[in-house]
Structures are given as C-alpha cells and as structure tokens.
Amino acid sequence: MLEKSIAPNGRTFFIDHRTKTTTWLDPRTGIAASRPQSGKTDDEIGALPEGWEQRDPRFENESIAGPAIPYSRDYKRKVEYLHSKLPRAGSNGKCDMIVHRETLFEDSYRHIMEKAPSELRHKLWIEFFGETGLDYGGVTREWFFLLSHEIFNPYYGLFEYSATDNYTLQINPHSGACNPDHLSYFYFIGKVMGMAIYHGKLLDAFFIRPFYKMMLGKKITLFDMESVDNAYYNSLIYIKDNDPEDLELTFAVDDCVFGETQTIELVENGREIRVTEANKEEYIEAVVNWRFVKRVEAQMEQILRGLHEVVPSNLLRIFDANEMELLMCGLQKIDVKDWKAHTVYKGGYGPSSQVIHNFWKCILSFDNEMRARVLQFVSGTSRVPMNGFRELYGSNGPQKFTIEKWGSSDMLPRAHTCFNRLDLPPYQTFSELKQKLCIAIENSEIFSGVD
C-alpha cells in the first residue's frame, strides 16, 4: 500500500506501508517531489475551513476527499473545534451536587442518574457535605479526581487491570457476576466521562488502547493485542505465519470465570470447525473480536449510551485513539531527565551514540504533548508511573524504555509496545531522525507502529 503524505516542512513524500519505508521519489514518475518555497506558521494559515473534521482521511468513508491535517496543530485545533460545537447549556442553570466524601460513589451515582442530560451540561457546582467554600473550579476538579479513583477501582469489579500491567485498565468481562446492576453503573460511568469531556476536566485513569478505539467505533486489530497480552499475541502471530493444521484448533476458545473454565464458540458450531490455512485469518479476527469486543459488548454499549447523551458521537470521531487518551486523561508533565536516566540501549547503541544524542535532542525540542505521543507510540500509553520511568511496565511486567538499533535510514522507526521498545534506524542527521520519527507517530494509526 502506497500513501502520499506531507512532511513537517511541507514537502511531499511517499510511504510504502508494506515495507515501512519512505522516499521523496514519486514511484509513478520517478521524479523527486519539489521542496516547498516557503513555510507558513499556524497563525498565517488561519482558521480551518468549514467542515474540515469531515475530511479527516482517518474516517471510514474513503470517498471523502481532503488533505491530512499537519500534526503540529492537529490535536489542539480538534479540541478547540470540539468545544466550539458542543451543545450549549443555558447560561443561568447550575448542576448542583452535595456529596459525602465517605459515600462519594453512591451519592454521585444518585445525583447524576436523577438528572437529564441537558442538566449535566450546566455549570457544575459541587459541594462536599459539611465543608464550607465556593466551587470556582477547584472543588469540581477534586470531585472528578476522587470519583474516577472510585468508579475505576478494580475492587468494585467493573474494571480490571490489564494483564500484569498495574496502571492501565480494561472493562471486566465478568462484571455481571460481581454486581447484578453492573450495566446501570456503566451507563453512569459513560455520563461521567461525557461530563469530564464537556466541562474540560480530567479523569485519573488510563485505559488500554482497544478501549479508546471502541469508544470511537474503530476496528481493533491483532496488533492492538501486543501491548495487552503479549503471550496471546505471539500465539496468534505464530498461527498467522505458519500452517495451523497440526495445532488441531477449532473456532472456540476457553474462558476462565472464577476458576471455572468455559468453552466459548467464536462462530455458530465453532467447536466443529477446524482452523486451517484457508480460514486462519478469519479465526484470528474472531479471536481478537471476542477478546476485546464481544466479551464486553453490553458494558461498552451502556458507556457509549451515557457518553453520547452528553457529548454527541460525531464530535468525538474527529479524534484518534491516542488523542482520546489525552482528551480524557490529560497530559502529565514528562521529566525527560528521568526518562533518559532509565532508558536501556541495545543492538550497538549506547548513551554516547550520535543517533541517541540526536534522539534526546529531538525529545527536548518537542513540547509536552508531542513527548506524550512518542511515549504512546512506544509503550501504548502516555501515562508515566507514580515513581517515574524506573517503574515502567510492559505487558509481562517491569520493562524499561528501550531503544534498539534496527533497519536502515530509509525506514521509519517502529515500536514494540509489549516491550516498551523503539526500533530506531541509524539516521545520519538530527533533522532526518526528527522527520522520520514524526512521520511514524503521525501514521501509527495506519500501520499500527509495529512490525
């Protein structure tokens, strides 16, 4: 698959997604794309044209034409567009809530479920019972922070930590066994998410990448499994790359529910259908769909129901999965010194290598948002553990950020999120490294950023 794109300096280049290589030469003519005569800043470009969000090429409708929006002003402008288009609440109304700190979850649930969606868009006015003071924003921020700690706490059985990872969450597929009323709570959680986005507040919780893709109605692929369950991912990669006939697999999987193993058919009469070379792609797709979608379909349906009552779904589709994480969970201040101090080098690279020097020079040149995008690209999330990069986790436990020498300078960097590893080609110059890294990150939605 060949794609024409625009580099940060405005020059046209071409991406071969099959080999993950880039070139200035147009493969149709063999002629190099011309350099731009002059660059324009964001201020000179001015406002985005009417309807720009409908021409984002990442949308499913491939017939909609329009150029990709340069990353350098992409996310910020999308957020501005979102807030300019949100349904307006009446200027005089308030959404009052008095909650007890000891029963924050229950009190918040009762208040929010009693209110119409339009009321949840009014100015929030939160009061903790028995505490004096006016809410000019600080109390509301604290309420969202404390409430997110409660509703996403695995103790309640609605969410669980993903694999051995101790700081990204996924929906507990067996939440119904923990709480018969679980779906009403997921509906409530969707409303809270919608309120946070609408009012520009943050939730103190980070989710696995497939969760954000499901929120956006994006297709989840095999490569999304790598950062969540590396062992399962590798077993499916083996099937993908080899003839599965001798494995004697069928279109069924085992699921452990509170110590009891249940066999789940992926398709009708799946136990009777053998996995063969001819149908293995269908099998892999069915397994991924079961693992991330089917098992939590009812829960996610209620989350989206609540979310979209507050924030219309069409306004969220302008974001990709990485941007949804930033929108909901915010940007942590990333300490580059700590990041650098707890990075491992492999394949011939070391702290004094020129390529590594250029990499950290590139990271320092980025703003905090772009640093978060680099971290998302390599680790699957922008979240840094409480005690810094020394406690960074991969899908199999503690795993430091790693940079390994790989490939040639005409190739794009690639990432292995399960190992927090960046495969970095030996680029000769700082500008080439920065350009290729930006291209890889911007296009990670297209070719998953992994090999």
TrEMBL record:
Residues 116-450 form the HECT domain. One of its GO terms (biological process) is regulation of dendrite morphogenesis. Signal peptide: none annotated. SMART domains: HECTc. It catalyses: S-ubiquitinyl-[E2 ubiquitin-conjugating enzyme]-L-cysteine + [acceptor protein]-L-lysine = [E2 ubiquitin-conjugating enzyme]-L-cysteine + N(6)-ubiquitinyl-[acceptor protein]-L-lysine. Residues 1-29 form the WW domain. InterPro entries: E3_ubiq-protein_ligase (IPR050409), HECT_dom (IPR000569), Hect_E3_ubiquitin_ligase (IPR035983), WW_dom (IPR001202), WW_dom_sf (IPR036020). GO terms for molecular function: sodium channel inhibitor activity; ubiquitin protein ligase activity. SUPFAM superfamilies: Hect, E3 ligase catalytic domain, WW domain. GO terms for cellular component: cytoplasm. Pathway: Protein modification; protein ubiquitination. It is an enzyme of class 2 (transferase). Pfam families: HECT. The active site is at C418 (glycyl thioester intermediate). Its EC number is 2.3.2.26. Keywords: Repeat, Transferase, Ubl conjugation pathway. This is HECT-type E3 ubiquitin transferase.
